[in-house]
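Record passed on underneath.
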Amino acid sequence: MGASPVLATNIRPPRFIGRCATVAYPGKRAGKELVYMGKVGTGWSTVSSQIRKQLDIVVSPKSKLTKPIKKPNTKWVEPKFSGKIEYRDITSEVLLRRSSFKALK
């Protein structure tokens, strides 16, 4: 049995809502809500220092998610930057599975 195809998030690209040293947290708009989509670690650590300065400009004192989540040591950011993320699947909780960061848009 082969691996699942890699799916790109081309429809409604995810917005970055938070970051820490080793992972990024994407969210997506669902109507008027901003919904958590899980975490992206693969690919993030290799480029995080390059885009950290861009995200640090839009740091928010608290999460902009409609239903806030607790993530220690996270810098929440305004959802202004979208990203290209590849993933293998979406869980029943609507979280990305086996996600990989590719680029900041």
